[in-house]
Amino acid sequence: MERVGDARGLVLGYVDALNAVDEAMRAAIPSLERLADVLGLVRSHRIINRSGQVGTHSYTVHGAGCRFIGDNGTVIDVDFAPDGSEIFDLWRLRQYGLSLSEPLDVTDQDLRTAVRSLQPLLTEVRPGWFSVAS
């Protein structure tokens, strides 16, 4: 059961890190109403480039999302649903865990159990993809 507890802590840490990135991006780019707006700003070639530095995070916009790397090396990769909500899967959670200063490698099964234990904080928006409930 300790592994599930570790996985639960990892998921909560990811959510906290994602919230910190959101706050940092909005502080640096006042016109940003939500994190997903980064995609539009990059695609319109306004305000920000496809990759760069904002505060203590570097970022790279990719496909339907963005990868943020904190100055401590922590990776927060997120995709955006068509409605602009932030979504993530088990792979992104594992990448976050492996990037921690004390890497945490947990199984997909432990992560699934942890995510389910965190409902209604987290919602499964489509099979294997999760979002923080609003």
Low-confidence stretches: none
Helix content: 40-55%
What profile does the largest beta sheet have? 7 strands, antiparallel
Write the element-wise H/E pattern from the N-terminal end onward.
Answer: HHEEEEEHHEE
Overall mean pLDDT score? 91
**Structure annotation, total helices:** 4
Secondary structure category: alpha+beta
Q: Provide the β-strand percentage band.
A: 25-35%
C-alpha Rg (nearest Å): 15 Å
Q: Strand sequence of the main sheet, in spatial order?
A: 1-2-3-4-5-7-6
Termini gap: 29 Å
Can you tell me the overall shape?
A: globular
Description:
Helices cover 40% and strands 26% of the residues. It has 134 residues and is α+β, with helices and mostly antiparallel strands. α1 (2-28) crosses α4 (108-117).
